[in-house]
Specification:
Protein name: Sdz-33 F-box domain-containing protein
InterPro entries: F-box_Sdz-33 (IPR012885)
Radius of gyration: 25 Å
Helix content: 25-40%
Shape: elongated
Order of helices and strands: HEHHEEEHEEEEEHEHEHEEHEHEHEEEEE
Number of helices: 10
Number of strands: 20
Amino acid sequence: MLDDVLKKLGTMDLLVISEAFILKSLNIFRIYYSTSSQFCKNSVRSMLTKRQVKLGIYLDSLRNSLVLYHSFPYIDKRDCTIRIDRIEEANRKGQLVREMNLWKIKLFSVTMNFNEKPVLASVESPKKMVVYWEKEIEGLIFMLNYLTELFPHMPICDLEAERYSQENNKKVIEWVKRRDKPEVERFTMGEWSKAEGVLHVLENVNITVMRLFIDLPEDFKYDFPQNLKMLECAHARWITRDQLLQMNYEQIYLSGTKFQNKDISDLVNKIMNGNLPAFKVSRTLVVSPNMDEIANGINYDRIPSQLECKLKPTKYRGGSFDVYGVYDFERADGNIVSLCSEFPNRTSRNILLLVWSRTEPLEI
């Protein structure tokens, strides 16, 4: 077993084959191996199809990392993290102490073999490795290529950019773009990013879930794709009424908007008409919200709503919020469209819309 082998190795001859560490940390299988063995490499690659692995890419000037997921977006004890750090950080740390199971081994930074290339690295825990480079972006691209070779059809489940330089950000996006399928399941742009960086990502990568926390200027222009499943935008004053009325997405969460009551009325009319068949839930901040004014602008009969529930965190979005129905509208297909508040007996600034069935649970 890997643990038994490591116990027998001294710190001077610990040239560990990296495939074995990564796959062992993912609990994909157990493997006997010898350091830098070609037989081992072939054996590793022959077993990759036994468990699907997804890749998360996290870009941050303070901490850049890659995560191999088993069950994204949920945390799994088998997930493996590889952090890319500057070579100076290895020198600063000096002597490292690593604990694996019940045994301890003291090491300085260790040379590991990545595709015949010796790389300075350290193992901080059975599930966490740090690799050191003169230039972090070069190490990041190298590790992306290495992992892609190890897992040829590994999908990118998460791409998150926060406090990262524009030049380095573009290099990673170009790497994603060169893949056979430049697709990302969830994309998150942090509040410290820049508008041009957002455009570069959105114009070059196919995204399923988009989360934007950056404060974009009101004159920012972008045509949203039609195949999104979820859109979350923390500063949405740049999003237009026309764009809102074309969002055929399962989930929409918009804060900091300039939308009025009439905009919500027209959105409900489109949902009732069946023009937005994918729509399930939205939570939209409205300027001076008024439930009766919204309801009066909806071209369908309404009844008082008895809906009261808590929407729990979804697959792509954390946090939960309370839902109190105000008015219900029955659609031609039998589904109910509910106009809701976040508080009982009073209007909240965030107006919620839910599409649900009396016979089926609401699943998002």
